[in-house]
Design a protein that fits this description.
The protein is built from ten helices and four strands; from the N terminus they run ααββαααααββααα. By secondary structure, the chain is mostly helical. Strands 1-2 form a two-stranded antiparallel sheet. A hairpin with a 2-residue loop joins strand 3 and strand 4. The longest helix is centred in the C-terminal third of the chain and has 37 residues.
Length: about 350
Amino acid sequence: MHVPDGFINAPVSAAAGVVAAGAVAVSLRGARRELDERTAPLAGLVAAFIFAVQMLNFPVAAGTSGHLLGGALAAILVGPWTGVLCIAVVLLMQGILFADGGLTALGVNITVMGVVTVVVAYALFRGLVLVLPRTRRSVTVASFAAALVSVPAAAAAFTLLYAVGGTTDVPLSKVLTAMVGVHVLIGIGEAVITMLTVGAVVAVRPDLVYGARGLTAPLKLRVGGELVDAAPAAPATAPAGSPKKLWIGGLVTALVLAGFVSFYASASPDGLEKVAADKGIDSKVEDHAAADSPLADYGVKGVEAPRLSGGLAGVIGVGATLAVGTGAFWVVRRRRTHSETAA
C-alpha cells in the first residue's frame, strides 16, 4: 500500500507530513518507556524483519497481490510507540533506497501504514486481551484479529485522504469499496503472518513480547488480614537472560526471506496499485525522485541475473534497516537512561 507521488495533492501531502512528524515525535518520547537494555536491540530487528517480509507479496485475487504492513506485528512485539517508529524506519529506507513509496508522500505512508495500523491494531489487541483468558494462546488469537482489522482500516484512511486531496476525479464510493474489499483479503494474510510470528516468539521468549507482559496475575498473600502481592518470581518458561539467540535467529530468518524467498514473491500489483490502475487513480502519478537509485525496484543496478540482483538488494535492505533502526532505538534508550540518572 505504498502511496507514490502524485496520488494526493501537495497541501494534503504536507498536512499528512505534519501529522506523521508529530506522531514520530510523540512516539520517540513514548518509546523511552517501552525500551530497555534487552528490548532496544530487538526493536531494530523487528524493523528489519518487517522490511524483509514486505518483500514477499502473496496472491489474494486474480491479478492482485498483497504484502505485510506490519503495524500490528510491531506494536505487539515491541509496543505501540516503538511500533510506529519501526514502520517509519522501514518506510524511510524503502523510499530513499528502493524508490518504493513517494518521497513527497512519505507523510501519507507513515500516517496510513504506520500510525493508523498501530493505533487500530493495538487498541483492538489490548481490548481482546482484557476479555480473553490470560494465556499465551489468547495473545496469538488477539494478534490475528488485530492484524486483520488494521489493514482495511489503513485502506479506509487512504480513501479519506484521497477524498480530501485526490488528484483525480474518481467517485469516492468506488474507491472506498474497491480499497476496503481487496484489503480485507490482504488482511487475512497479514493476520496469519502476524499470528505465526507472535506465536513463535511467545513460545520461546514470552518475556520479550510487549503485548504478552502481565499475563500471569500476581500471587496474593494474606498479611495481617489483608491481601498483598507476593514478590514476583521468574517463571521457568521465561528465561531472563540475553535475547542473543532470538536476535540471531530473527536476523537469519530476515536475511533468508529477503535474499532468497523474495524471488518467489507474486509479481502481480498490490492492492493499491491494482485499484489505482482499475479506477484511474494513477493517471497523474509522478516519477519517483530516487528512480535512478542503484537499488531502485529492489534490484542492484549492474547485476544482470534477476535472482542475484533481487537477493542482494534484499540483503542490503535488511542490513541498512537493521543498522538505522538499531541506532535510532539505541539513542532513544540512552536518552531514557540519562533522564533516569538525572532524576
